[in-house]
């Protein structure tokens, strides 16, 4: 009995890196200092610019999570900074600071579906070691919400961040003196307390999320954007608009979705349809039978050889 039911292939789609700065290729019209100033205005604590209108968390402390490898390895650390400039500090490590990018030169900044990722390379003095070991620092930057910022700043003193000995109750747990690291990690993991900056979307007018896949030499991109509140689609319950691009051209196969989960599901289903169905069960079994038959023939030949080489003489002969 034949079974022509096909095995579905699961396509691999990856978040698209929206490059903000790359020291190797640069960004047209922007120098490193211009990019840093733009990010500083976006995160800034002074509340003197226009970023307050596009960044709801504008002015709140920043959390940076990451580590270094390849040269002077350090484990992944999570540190809080009062502002963007402190978080980007690249001053020498012998100054006693806790900056993750100490001794580094920032060489890459990109947005990955709202997450802001930064990389730093060791200075020219370590170029040979850096090249051999791939030494670099890599970290993700997030910003505390107003709620998370108040909770953190309530326990920030001139001597640093310290929790009281008698403890505080927050995020469903009780934290006491000595629990500072756990407290910061829980802040990081709680969207109500700490959120991804979404810099590319808010400041550069890029889609909320973007994904990309390659199949048979063709590039397929998925762009997910929020639906505007004053639109007909929003009134009908749509919150996200998904567009599908083939080699940079809108192929007209998009969809309005009620939430991000539905948008993600549509992207995956479309990607799977591009990859197509796999071989049928019968074809797969036939292939496996051929492989098994070949393996059996090889095994038989090996056994015949072993038999010919085997010493069949009786003990004592």
Q: Per the principal axes of the C-alpha atoms, what is the gross shape?
A: globular
| Share of β-strand residues | 25-35%
Low-confidence stretches: 1-7, 125-134, 278-292, 309-317
Report on the biggest sheet.
7 strands, antiparallel
Q: What proportion of the residues is helical, as a percent range?
A: 25-40%
- The total count of helices amounts to 9
From the alpha-carbon coordinates, what is the Rg to the nearest angstrom? 28 Å
Give the topology string: H per helix, E per strand: EEEHEEHEEHEHEEEEHEHEEHEEEHEH
Q: Which class do the helix and strand fractions yield?
A: alpha+beta
Number of strands: 19
Distance between the termini: 57 Å
User: Overall pLDDT, averaged?
Assistant: 79
Report on the structure:
This protein is α+β, with helices and mostly antiparallel strands. 30% of the residues lie in helices and 30% in strands. The chain has nine helices and 19 strands. The strands form five sheets. Strands 3, 4, 5, 6, 7, 8 and 13 form a seven-stranded antiparallel β-sheet that branches. Strands 2, 14, 15, 16, 17 and 18 form a six-stranded antiparallel β-sheet that branches. A hairpin with a 2-residue loop joins β16 (240-246) and β17 (249-250). The longest helix has 29 residues, at 281-309. Residues 1-7, 125-134, 278-292 and 309-317 have low confidence and may be disordered.
């Amino acid at each position: 009995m034949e079974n022509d039911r096909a095995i579905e292939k699961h396509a691999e789609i990856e978040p698209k890196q929206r490059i903000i700065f790359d020291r190797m290729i640069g960004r047209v019209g922007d120098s490193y200092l211009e990019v840093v100033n733009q990010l500083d205005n976006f995160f800034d604590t002074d509340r003197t610019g226009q970023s307050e209108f596009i960044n709801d968390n504008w002015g709140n402390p920043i959390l940076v999570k990451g580590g270094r490898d390849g040269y002077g390895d350090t484990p992944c650390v999570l540190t809080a900074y009062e502002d963007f400039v402190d978080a980007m500090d690249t001053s020498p490590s012998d100054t006693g600071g806790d900056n993750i990018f100490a001794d580094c030169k920032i060489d890459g900044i990109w947005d990955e579906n709202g997450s802001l990722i930064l990389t730093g390379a060791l200075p020219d003095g370590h170029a040979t070691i850096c090249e051999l070991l791939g030494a670099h620092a890599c970290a993700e930057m997030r910003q505390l919400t107003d709620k998370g910022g108040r909770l953190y700043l309530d326990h920030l003193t001139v001597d640093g961040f310290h929790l009281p000995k008698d403890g505080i109750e927050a995020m469903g747990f009780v934290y006491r003196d000595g629990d500072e690291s756990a407290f910061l990690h829980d802040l990081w993991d709680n969207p109500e307390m700490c959120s991804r900056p979404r810099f590319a979307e808010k400041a550069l007018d890029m889609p909320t999320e973007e994904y990309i896949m390659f199949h048979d030499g063709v590039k397929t991109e998925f762009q997910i954007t929020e639906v505007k509140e004053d639109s007909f689609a929003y009134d009908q319950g749509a919150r996200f608009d998904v567009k599908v691009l083939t080699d940079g051209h809108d192929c007209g196969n998009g969809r309005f979705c009620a939430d991000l989960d539905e948008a993600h599901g549509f992207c995956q289903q479309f990607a799977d349809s591009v990859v197509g169905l796999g071989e049928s069960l019968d074809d797969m079994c036939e292939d496996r039978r051929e492989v098994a038959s070949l393996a059996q023939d090889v095994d038989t030949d090996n056994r015949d050889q072993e038999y010919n080489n085997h010493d069949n003489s009786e003990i004592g002969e």
